[in-house]
């Protein structure tokens, strides 16, 4: 049992199942070997011994047929009868006997049988020689028939009897071999049956023993663990037990032992600390009462400061709104001046474009004048050619005259238009100069308006920032007031929580008293609570400082 407890549960189960499987394997291998032996003897009986007996019987029957035919032949009185019996002798000894002998030779399986068969073959050859002599004497005539009959019933008969006895011995050898094979098969069966029963019994006993051992090695530590857990659940932390082995239940018991020790330490500390908690809760309640009174005074002073900040914020906001309106008016004036400057700039650009267009028109009129001059020259050339043509060119001369007249009129109109355009260009140039002067004046006005707008905007921004800063201060004061009121509420809640903590610590002491501990654990000191109380006692000092600072603000 102790050896099993040194193994893991998986190793134990593997050992148990492995042992059973090994026994099953041994049983299976042994069964296969025994079945193979039984099958060998059964095959030998069916394929060797019994066929050998059958083959010897066939040889005996064939020889008997030949012997009967030989005896009948010497008794026949007619040549036809003797010939018929001779054919039967040849059929038996020459046709049927050799295949039967060959079939038997394949079944010979022992030296004794082989030796006896060789002797049989020698005597068989001698017998066949005697039979041949009997046949020869019987065919020689009536004078030799008596000698043939004497040979057939004497020496030949004795030789046949010896052969028959040898065949009986061969049958006996094969029958004994068959009986031995049957006995060996029966013995193998009985031996296999005994071994099977023994192995099955050993397997059952081994499996039962391993099952009991493995089960007890697992259940006993678990029962110990259940007992310890039950004792802990009932408040008994004084349980002691021994642990053996290195398996999972042993690890569980180690964990339970460690847990029990930790619970002993923890319960002892909780029991000792619950009293300190109750004392500390009472001191916290007293400190919270003082803190609540100081917090209420601080909240009252903050409310007065918040009201003053609201009045100051309202005044600054009014100044900021006025500066914002002035900034908007200045921005509108600057925008109007910028729009006027933009319009004047557009007028100047338009006048310049008109002047450029007038220059282009003047160039075009020059081109028209040149075209009219060239047309006039062409008309003169056409009139000269028409005069040379005589009567045939009269119509062409009239057309050339009209073209010349039109060219002169076009040239005159172009001169007049050019004069008008030149005058217009001069006037547009003067207007462009005046518009440029007006644009420069507007740019100066716009720059001054922008400066005024910038100054007013800076004033408005400063007022807005001042209003925003005062608003933030007011919000901070309001937030501080809210926080102070929340602190007051929290102080009240803390006082209630301290009272509840004291009640719960008393209940905790009552609950912890249920556990039974050793005296050494009960005497163990709990973590000190005094430093926490000492650290908490100076907290009202900042409130007093804040209250003095608040009075200073009110006086200011």
TrEMBL record:
GO terms for cellular component: plasma membrane. PROSITE patterns: CHEMOTAXIS_TRANSDUC_2 (PS50111), HAMP (PS50885). SUPFAM superfamilies: Methyl-accepting chemotaxis protein (MCP) signaling domain. The keyword Cell membrane does not apply. Residues 546-556 have a biased composition (Basic residues). Residues 273-502 form the Methyl-accepting transducer domain. GO terms for molecular function: transmembrane signaling receptor activity. The keyword Repeat does not apply. The chain crosses the membrane at residues 12-33, 192-214. Keywords: Membrane, Methylation, Transducer, Transmembrane, Transmembrane helix. Residues 526-544 have a biased composition (Low complexity). It comes from the Bacteria. Residues 216-268 form the HAMP domain. GO terms for biological process: chemotaxis; signal transduction. It is found in: Membrane. InterPro entries: Chemotax_Me-accpt_rcpt (IPR004090), HAMP_dom (IPR003660), HlyB_4HB_MCP (IPR024478), MCP_chemotaxis (IPR051310), MCPsignal_dom (IPR004089), YvaQ-like_sensor (IPR047347). SMART domains: HAMP, MA. Belongs to the methyl-accepting chemotaxis (MCP) protein family. PANTHER family: METHYL-ACCEPTING CHEMOTAXIS PROTEIN I-RELATED, PROTEIN ICFG. This is Methyl-accepting chemotaxis protein. The lineage of its organism: Bacteria, Pseudomonadati, Pseudomonadota, Betaproteobacteria, Burkholderiales.
């Amino acid at each position: 049992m102790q050896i099993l407890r040194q193994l893991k549960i998986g190793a134990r189960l593997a050992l148990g199942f492995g042992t059973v499987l090994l026994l099953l394997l041994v049983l299976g291998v042994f069964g296969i070997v025994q079945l193979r032996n039984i099958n060998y003897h059964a095959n030998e009986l069916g394929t060797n011994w019994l066929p050998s007996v059958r083959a010897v019987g066939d040889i005996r029957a064939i020889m008997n047929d030949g012997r009967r035919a030989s005896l009948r032949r010497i008794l026949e009185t007619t040549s036809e009868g003797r010939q018929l019996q001779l054919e039967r002798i040849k059929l038996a000894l020459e046709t049927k006997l050799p295949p039967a002998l060959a079939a038997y030779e394949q079944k010979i399986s022992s030296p004794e049988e082989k030796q006896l068969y060789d002797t049989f073959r020698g005597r068989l050859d001698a017998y066949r020689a005697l039979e041949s002599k009997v046949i020869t004497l019987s065919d020689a005539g009536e004078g030799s028939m008596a000698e043939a009959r004497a040979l057939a019933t004497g020496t030949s008969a004795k030789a046949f009897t010896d052969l028959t006895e040898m065949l009986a011995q061969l049958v006996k050898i094969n029958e004994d071999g068959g009986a031995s094979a049957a006995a060996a098969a029966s013995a193998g069966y009985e031996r296999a049956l005994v071994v099977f029963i023994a192995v099955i019994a050993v397997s059952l006993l081994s499996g039962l023993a391993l099952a009991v051992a493995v089960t007890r090695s697992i259940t006993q530590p678990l029962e110990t663990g259940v007992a310890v857990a039950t004792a802990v659940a009932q408040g008994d932390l004084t349980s002691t037990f021994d642990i053996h082995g290195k398996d999972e239940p042993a690890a569980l018991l180690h964990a339970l032992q460690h847990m029990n020790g930790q619970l002993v330490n923890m319960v002892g500390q909780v029991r000792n600390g619950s009293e300190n908690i109750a004392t500390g809760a009472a001191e916290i309640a007293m400190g919270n009462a003082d803190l609540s009174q100081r917090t209420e005074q601080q909240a009252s002073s903050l409310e007065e400061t918040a009201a003053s900040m609201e009045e100051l914020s309202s005044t600054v906001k009014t100044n900021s709104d006025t500066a914002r309106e002035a900034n908007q008016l200045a921005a509108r004036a600057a925008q109007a001046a910028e729009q006027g400057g933009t319009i004047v700039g557009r007028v100047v650009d338009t006048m310049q474009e008109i002047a450029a267009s007038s220059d282009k028109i003047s160039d075009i009129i020059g081109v028209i004048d040149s075209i009219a001059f060239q047309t006039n020259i062409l008309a003169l050339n056409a009139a000269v050619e028409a005069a040379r043509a005589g009567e045939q060119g009269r119509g062409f001369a009239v057309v050339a005259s009209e073209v010349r007249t039109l060219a002169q009129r076009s040239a005159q109109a172009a001169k007049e238009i050019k004069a008008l355009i030149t005058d217009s260009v001069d006037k547009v140039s003067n207007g462009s100069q005046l518009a440029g002067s007006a644009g420069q004046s507007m740019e100066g006005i716009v720059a001054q308006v922008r400066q005024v707008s910038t100054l007013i905007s800076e004033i408005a921004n400063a007022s807005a920032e001042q209003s925003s800063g005062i608003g933030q201060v007011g919000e901070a004061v309001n937030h501080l007031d809210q926080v102070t009121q929340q602190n007051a509420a929290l102080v009240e809640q803390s006082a209630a929580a301290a009272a509840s903590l004291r009640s719960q610590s008393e209940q905790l002491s009552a609950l912890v008293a249920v556990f039974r501990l050793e005296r050494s654990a009960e005497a163990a000191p709990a973590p000190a609570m005094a430093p926490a109380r000492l650290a908490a006692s100076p907290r009202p000092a900042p409130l007093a400082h804040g209250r003095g600072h608040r009075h200073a603000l009110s006086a200011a």
